Amino acid sequence: MKKTLYSTAAALLLTGAVFAQTTPAPAPAAPAGDPVIMKFGSTEIRQSEFESAIKTLPPEYQAYASSTGKRNFAEDYIRMKLLASEGLKNGLENDPDVRKQLQLLKENTLANAQLQRIEKNLALTDAELKQAYEEKKQTFDQAKARHVLIAFKGSPALQPGKKELTEDEAKAKAEELRKKIVAGTDFAEVAKAESDDSGSGARGGDLGTFGRGQMVPEFDKAVFETKVGEVGPVIRTQYGFHIVQVQERKASALEDVKAQLETELRQKKLQAALESMNKTAGVTFDEKYFAPEKPQSSEVVDPAKETPKTAKKP
């Protein structure tokens, strides 16, 4: 944790050092209510500077550096400042390798700032959201279902100590149980007594509510094609044979998935903007330099069996 915080803080200061070297300017007067919270020599670090540094950390570290890790981050930050100060005294900013790193940090900071500006200016209209919703409407379907699972030999759902059934035996048993349910036997009671899905079986086979794509393909297809209330035909999956009953099915309203759609559309627009930037700039790559390396042959040649190219025929 501390190493990550220190590395990030160091990058922040070095990036700032680049701008300080290229655009020197007098330090602005500190606003009221912005106390000095750290200092060394003539250098003072105010609360606003320290908190700005925290905000540039990855989200998963910001909470730590703002609370229980505040003192740890402060110690790393001041250590980084001291090291940078010594580096400036020793003229390291003129070292060729250091200058390259500083330039890279400067460009990376500018690139991130420009990326944020592009993202901020991406506008989404209600019409775009509605169109995206209509195109993907079916994928937002929700279903509530229950099932009885009869596992066969090799199934990951096979219950320990229970007799292992062949696929034919498992299918025959599932078909027989389905007939009983269709004839009037309580679905929940059959699930509790016979299902090899111990979790849902204890709840009478109840799987709760789920969306498209959350179940294995065969099961998903059956659930979203079977009429509500009906007990569908027995289906096979890698887990065994299932007796499925769909209890409820509904489509999610636009408002329910609006946030998800906005994220997806923004990502598409951002990607399009970046691709357009590349095209406008005429970006090209040296295909020879970037060509994938050819895999080395793993075949071992026996020198004793290899025929020299200069050998004469008998």
Describe the protein.
The protein has 314 residues and is α+β, with helices and mostly antiparallel strands. It folds into two domains: 2-110, no CATH class; 141-251, Chitinase A, domain 3 (Roll), CATH 3.10.50. Helix content is 51%, strand content 13%. It contains eleven helices and six strands. It has helices at residues 2-22, 47-55, 59-66, 70-89, 96-120, 126-136, 167-183, 187-194, 198-201, 217-225, 254-281; strands at 36-40, 43-46, 141-150, 206-211, 235-237, 240-251. It has a four-stranded antiparallel β-sheet, sandwiched between helices. Helix 1 packs across helix 4 (70-89) and helix 6 (126-136) packs across helix 11 (254-281). The longest helix is centred in the C-terminal third of the chain and has 28 residues, at 254-281. It is elongated. The chain starts with a helix and ends in a 33-residue tail after the last helix. Mean pLDDT is 85; it is low at 1-28 and 303-314.
